[in-house]
Amino acid sequence: MHKLSVLLFTAVAFFIFSGSPAFSDELNEPAAGYSESSLPMQDEAEPHYLDADEAFIPELEQNEQDVSVKFTIAPEYYLYQERFTITPINCEISDIIIPEGLYHDDEYMGPSHIYYDAVTVKLKVSRTDPFPKISVRYQGCTAGMCYPPITKKIAIDRLSVDETETAGPAGAAQKSGEDTDAHNADVGNGDNIEKIPGSDFTSLIDISSDSGSIYKMMGSSILFGLVAFFCFGVLLSLTPCMFPMYPIWSSIILGSRQKNVKTTAAYTFVYILGMAVAYMLAGFGIAYAGARFQMFLQQPAVLIIMSIIFLILAISMFGLFEMTLPGSWINRLQQFNDKQKGGTVTGVFLMGVISAVIASPCTTAPLAGALMFIMKDGDMVRGGAYLFVMGLGMGVPLAIIAVLGQKFLPKSGMWMKNIKVICGFIMLTIPLYLLRNYLSTEIITAIAILMSGSLICYLTLLVMKKQRGPFAIFTMTVTAAMAVSSLFMTPDEGRSGLFEQVKTLDELESVIRDNDVVIVDVRADWCASCKKYEDTTFADGNVIEYMSGYKNVYVDITEDNGPSKDIIEKYNSTITGAPTILIFRNHTLISSVNGYLPAGSFIARINSALKKERR
């Protein structure tokens, strides 16, 4: 039983860590061979992308204190719910209502909520000074391209003195945490919109997750998430603080009277149901809070704090310290629980609810981690469903005792502490997931190697009886060497070997002057198709070989006021959004490509533009 459990958890751990962003890259098959003479002379058919002010048209409506901003969205374009932020200028606002969007999952950007066709944002104005406005910031995309975040200042009517007095104290206005850019346009009813590239909220945009990530799968597939949380509940039930208590709980549930198997199973199910319902309600509540404060939860500082909390929770699973509710709370709940009568449906159900609240030292940390994960996701349906099935999973040993008897459960032992440690290793992956957009691939790879090697070493030592010391030293030495070497690797051949970064307009102009042909990749962290370019087109061997004879640079337009701002202003009419490819020949911009192209079409498009220029 001991060796079987170790092998089982080794497989689970391998599945968890193999879903790490560092190890989920898919191999890219090279396209068919290309030669310049075999490529078409004409331009490849490219999609036409609307300008941002054509794709997303705002209209202001105001009825005294009630203000609405309606966005008309072009077909096949969409706006992100998480990208909306509203800031008052010379006024006070409250009761901001941003409707719930449709759930959307992107291979590169991860789960989010979007609006098609139209969306209306509502708010109340409670006080106005001279020249009141609201600053609305939003971002949208379409297939193949994302637009930079857009900020608009929209003039609103001043409130009369009577209206201001009636409004009373203003509610808390939504804070964006950003300064309004000097280049924003003053607009009324959506006219004269100026596009502002970049965003201080890039962390909201770039919630990317590699396709192999277990966390992305839980976010995109509710069925997978249900199975994962059920298994998580089973693991928690096998920890040393929980497992030995199940026979005792079983006798308390049944009361003093002997019952047949059918009745015993029914009462046990009621107890498990009470426990699962308690967790479900917690899931609903925490997911609702997460949805309300989604923008706040995506801020880098908040993600760092959450990651630190997860690290502390994971460390507690290794036995360094224990986390429980305050003793006074537990005593009061226990006193109430003792008053319930075993053998009655109501009493058994309430006992299940209370047992879920009185978390044992072994389960407090992982339960807190599960709640934080659900808060980060912000989906009430998934949040409630996930914790409900987790509660069912925690009741599996009780169900076995009720139906088959205690003899069918394994005996208590050290294997329960091992499961607790394995849960700690699993929890260590969550900070890596939360901070994946702020850590380089090399660092993520190094951390993942260290975690995987440590877990493999731990699990193997559980099985080995001889030569444990030398094996542990050898394993950790190899793991450390692999982790250190990964810091010096260049896994992204397309980005590191094909392109060099230019940060300022002076740098770009210098490159253009010194080279006959320059290919410029305009990209941003909030751009899903940019990531697709890196993983596919720019990693294709034929593309690398074809472009090796040219000077290839990239410009990062992620930040509003970054050094690339002057580049965007100079080529504003060409750079509709990201990704955009600029093609220079003889110091002149001769063509551009908006949106994503696969390897073959990309080479053909570049070749066609250059050959046209030669004629």
What is this structure's SSE topology?
Elements: H1 2-18, H2 52-55, E1 56-63, E2 66-73, E3 77-80, E4 85-97, E5 102-106, E6 110-115, E7 118-138, E8 140-142, E9 145-146, E10 150-155, H3 161-167, E11 186-187, H4 202-205, H5 214-220, H6 222-237, H7 246-254, H8 261-292, H9 294-297, H10 300-317, H11 327-339, H12 345-357, H13 361-377, H14 380-394, H15 396-403, H16 414-434, H17 441-463, H18 468-486, H19 493-498, E12 500-501, H20 505-514, E13 517-523, H21 528-535, H22 541-547, E14 551-556, H23 565-570, E15 580-585, E16 588-594, H24 599-614
Parallel strand pairs: 10-11, 12-14, 13-14
Antiparallel strand pairs: 1-2, 2-7, 3-6, 3-8, 4-7, 5-6, 7-10, 8-9, 13-15, 15-16
Helix pairs in contact: 1-16, 1-17, 5-6, 6-14, 7-15, 8-12, 8-13, 8-14, 8-15, 10-13, 10-16, 13-16, 16-17, 17-18, 22-24
